[in-house]
Batch of 2 targets.
Target 1
Amino acid sequence: MDMAVDMAIDAAPNGDASAAAPAVAAAHTSTARLAQIAESLKLEHQLVRVPLEHLKKTIRSNYRLAEREFTAVLNSVAEASGSSDSRSMDETLTRLSSLVTRLQGLKRKLEEGGKVENVQVQRCRARLEHLGSVADADKLDDWKDARLNRILVDYLLRMSYYDSAKNLAETADIQELADIDVFFEAKRVIESLRNKDLAPALVWCAENKPRLKKSKSKLEFQLRLQEFIELVRANEHMKAIFYARRYLAPWAATNMKEMQRVVTTLAFRHNTECSIYKVLFEPTQWDYLVEQFKQEFCRLFGMTNEPLLNIYLQAGLTALKTPLCYKEACSKEDPLSQEGFRRLAEPLPFSKLHHSKLVCYISKKPMDHENPPLVLPNGHVYSTKALEEMSRQNDGRITCPRTGEVCNFTELVKAFIS
Amino acid sequence: MELDLIQDAFDRVSKKQKLSSSKTQQLVRQIEHEIEQAIMKMQSTENATSCPELKQILADLKNKLNEFSPMNQLETLQKDLNITLGKYVKVTEKSFNPDISKAYRNVDFDPHIVNQIIASHFYRQGLFDLGDCFISEANEPEAAALKTPFLEMYGILESMRRRNLELALNWASSHSEWLAQNGSNLELKLHQLQFVEILQNDSVQNALSYVRKHLAPNASAHKVEIPKLMGCLVWSGKLHKSPYADLLSPNHWEKLADEFMQQFCSCLGQSYQSPLSIAIAAGIHGLPTLLKLESVMAVKKQEWQAMKQLPVPIDLSKDFQFHSIFVCPVLREQGSDENPPMLMPCGHVLSKQSIVKLSKSSTRPFKCPYCPLEASVAQCRQLHF
């Protein structure tokens, strides 16, 4: 099973990461490093997609504005010229002048809209340029720091810690790379939902109706259900029934069971003890709505469902997790030596190695064919370079750092580990 | 990744957007112009209230507008723009992985733990205001545990930046036992640097008394360094021309600041680099493999979620190797307390289980899988990495 998966992994499309590596070890490392960077760029879909979706939205709304105004103006002209009764010139002049005013208003709005579009286009471009700048080897560390900060800002925004997000974006100078304004749009809706106000959420659904429909979203339906329940809670039964007829019926075909369950609440009071229906009146329903909205919002904008931090942290902990991390002797440099990280990593799978990877206890450097392991008479193993250094400084004598036993450098034996 | 292709596709979007925007505004001007023309015609007609005249002007206007049909033009512009946008979206979906959360396991990350990790990270980076802001927004007062020690550390680093070693020396002397136990000569290095500072900016006399006060008491430990410093006294005022010129290099300050930070963090039981940075960097390294694994494995969601060990290695660079992990070349299993690595007389290393299997009984010698040498179980000794 392992072998099959291994081969499949190698055969799966991997961009240009599988370029033939030259024999020289150093060159191989830098090729591998470049390949690794190229792979990591592929993970940045969200960075590029979100400003694009934002731009598309602005373009759409500008278009709809122009469409509306054109239609109104053209209709007005058609009506004026088509009417059979005699109109005075003054009336017609007034009408035409008002159309001109309307067009001038449209011109102004389109100019402003155009400016917004330009800003968003610039942001899209800035993101692409930022990805390209990873090729600049001198600034690579800064680029990586910026990436960590971007991931943190994404987390802060999703958790609604807006002040911290703004603070970090400014401090790290990554404002162009963060989607703070997009999240602010969501902030309004989320805060109103937390205040049990459904109006902004419903407006948002209306604004994004075609795309929500395309993705078969039930968000609007769930918001309407909540509105219905609030009417029932206030004992406004007639209003609730009319509301259901108008707003819930259109969704009945695809959501019959859900609708029936909610409509049945009419038969109960809001402080009913019946568990199936009691839960519908709980304040936790609002939290559920907030989560649903967040998910739809992220989906529309091309953002991942989970915060980037969680995704990368999970992957990282899995990659680092070995049984040795949970032992007392775990090096403090390993993140998994910290209690918090250990707890987070508990439900995650362990990493796997196919070949031995050894680290010298003394120098913390890898023990490989350039620095092979040497075995002391007591069975402890250290790297050749570290032991040679120790021998040089102590007239050929070796003291095991862990047991204190002393021996001669000549007594050491080579171990061959593949 | 073909960034050029993506940028080209976006340039096309940008061009189309500008075109659409300016043409739309032009259409508005055109409509406006026609209507204004009609108004002017009406106002210049002699026969002010003549119905047919009025009708004619309006009919002309309507026809004119239909002629260049602004609605159709608007629609066409938008359609074109949408096509270009659609193409760009396709390019991005091909070049990037459109869903990196595919390999995500639905385990609950306790938000309190995550918040504590983030707050510690901010304090470690020296972002104290941000850390405080975060803690109040996230409502995690206990997350400020590491704030005080890191404040101290940055205070010392700041004074070192201003070439004042007093705080650093205080810290080093109050932790001299710990430093000695961990094989660090930080205190000595600080004293050396301070000595050079005094020699450069103060008097030879003071420099000498500095050595007498701080370095002489422990002279036996500093056999090499003290003579060097004494030698500097001879060249005082011309140190840059002396054989000891390298002591003046500003590098020493940077390196010493780094070393101080390393020792400080280590004494605190913390890593030198932010653990969050390391974990995230490991994640970025390993996520492509995990995503490929998830898509190739084609297992049910439950199997993926319940996995105890990855079936495939994630290749992390040397920076992420914190432990020695032995993998038996025969059984491909990781070494453990119950199954430790054993060294055979030929120098090859196998796991204990492999050796037991190969020997079939515990006294007969067996052949090493990698070379013709034979060995018995008793000749193999356990290794400790």
Note: Chain B touches chain A through 131 residues (CB under 8 Å).
Target 2
Amino acid sequence: MPFGDAHNQVKMKFSSEEEYPDLSKHNNHMSKVLTAALYERLRSKQTPSGFTLDDIIQTGVDNPGHPFIMTVGCVAGDEETYEVFKELLDPVIEDRHGGYKPSDKHKTDLTSSNLKGGDDLDPDYVLSSRVRTGRSVRGFCLPPHCSRGERRAVEKLSIEALASLSGDLNGKYYALKNMTDAEQQQLIDDHFLFDKPVSPLLLSSGMGRDWPDARGIWHNDNKTFLVWVNEEDHLRVISMQKGGNMKEVFNRFCTGLTKIETLFKERNHAFMWNEHLGYVLTCPSNLGTGLRAGVHVKLPNMSKNAKFEEVLKKLRLQKRGTGGVDTAAVGGVFDISNADRLGFSEVELVQMVVDGVKLLVEMEKKLEKGQSIDDIMPAQK
Amino acid sequence: MTTIMPFGNTHNNFKLNYKVEDEFPDLSKHNNHMAKILTKELYGKIRDRQTPSGYTLDDVIQTGVDNPGHPFIMTVGCVAGDEESYEVFKELLDPVISDRHGGYKPSDKHKTDLNFENLKGGDDLDPNYVLSSRVRTGRSIKGFTLPPHNSRGERRAIEKLSVEALTSLDGEFKGKYYPLKSMTDAEQEQLISDHFLFDKPVSPLLTCAGMARDWPDGRGIMHNDNKTFLVWVNEEDHLRVISMQPGGNMREVFKRFCVGLQKIEEIFKKHNHGFMWNEHLGYILTCPSNLGTGLRGGVHVKLPKLSTHAKFDEILTRLRLQKRGTGGVDTASVGGVFDISNADRLGSSEVAQVQLVVDGVKLMVEMEKKLEKGEAIDSMIPAQK
């Protein structure tokens, strides 16, 4: 039977103007696209699982803007969201992903041997290297919308799949609810564990519900390959290690990910993917590859240079603090990663990071010696 | 375009495909009223129900699932999304109400008494000790769903009705409405430090129940020119009505409270939107803890000695009073000043509850004075009220 809802039956009696959110103080992708007329056209729709327009936009209504980044302001509740609400999400995707059109096709390339170089970033500057992505498991709703039963089923499948990994990928699953506070703090300090959800961006979209039920982390014995279960996406897959050997990190990433995908397919729960949007994830910003490849790199001189932002832009890179997306840099150490997700393959994005960071370190060294960097400014990639 | 179809939801249509065991929340680490009542069997029995507006069991309990416990108080762990929640989910809410409200039974009747003249005394609490007096309650407007569930359209309609009603008051109630979204940060800070304004919703007890959605849309505060009568619109309840002033004249505070409340109720009734009330639960509010009178009558009172006395908590229990810090429900006391108020809401009338506060605080101030003089208070320990 059709289920009840937190978005009540009463609201369709109110006119669209009466229900349309006040976005006058807002600055996120959703607020730029969602006019009153569009709201009216879409507000009576729902996906097969019952996700509605108000569900999609709640996070963007509740969070007008962010001090550091242009937020997306909307999320998907299931795979069908991107189709049923394409009139909102296509323009959001286009704005967010550099003009990506509804007719565009996305290329997936997880063949790590296609990466050139990447094994020689200077470890005096590049402290650590990391590649992460997300995956959604077909047949289940996404974290803003899934029920406890679905979330637990995703966890169960994940545990089974991961338990069959071996060799360098042999590891163990730690359910969040059984973890001691000490274990948890250690994993957070090692940059392994995901935060308890405190960001209003996540909480407003319902991703914190029932915490910590069915959330957990799996990692291999070496702690170089990790999988987060049921945080912002069904799965987040991370390969990381100290130093600058991004090639090795990416190798492990591709190998592990491909093995995991095979295991899930064998259980009739492939990853959500289509040829237009690539891998389908909760946040429209993570569509395509869902990939963020980055390094923690010391750039105390470069980061103070007037052209720092411009260089990053030309290299198609972005900076974050070393605590992750909502933090500031500490001690001149920055998290530098690819800015793009959709419209480029995994190999292409990691290549940009490898080449770009190599150049940034060169620039840092020049500035240390008091030399100019004008002659090595890059062209727009 | 009219749409009759059952609406979409954050509680998806697929979940009934999962077994009860798979959907039942893990409450093993929980300590709130809901967690004590909701067994797997009960969950299985009522999980496919919804109220006419579409509120479900998972909606009711989400806040209690997400918030296992609270350091200072035993939380309720469930909320209503509309008037019908208390009926449709009575198998859960009746036992919660019984636990929370001292054994109140499903067959019990609640008495409403807003006749301030029935209060005895209350105009002479010592202002050297009693710094301020305050009475608040909540009201829900019939025909709309409650803050955990209401849509923007509903919330705005409530605001509109409230603004009409409140700006038509005159005499000592004449005042002005300030929508939250137009308030400057400075105005807002001032109102908060005057203890007039409600906090931005940061408490996970509220945010997990969905009460902060679309903030600050549709929210605001009305107060009279004297700042002794205030109404909060669309916070945890549709309306919160507050009468307050410095000093210990609780009688005056309660009179203003009753008169103002009744004027407001008349205006809402004229618009065909009376307050939610029934003879079993009294005034219907969002949190089951506020049913009945929804009334919290209290004072800020200096009790540095009494509060460190071994029998302080016992005295409070016997007087049917509770203590809080001067920042409100989630705070600790500062400088020996406590917020002392009635503990009960349901099963006794407004007059009876304020009487308990007046009599109880009078006694505690006497005790404080004795302790100051180094005298014992054993002979003054009251019987259980």
Note: The CA atoms of residues 214 and 265 of chain A lie 21 Å apart.
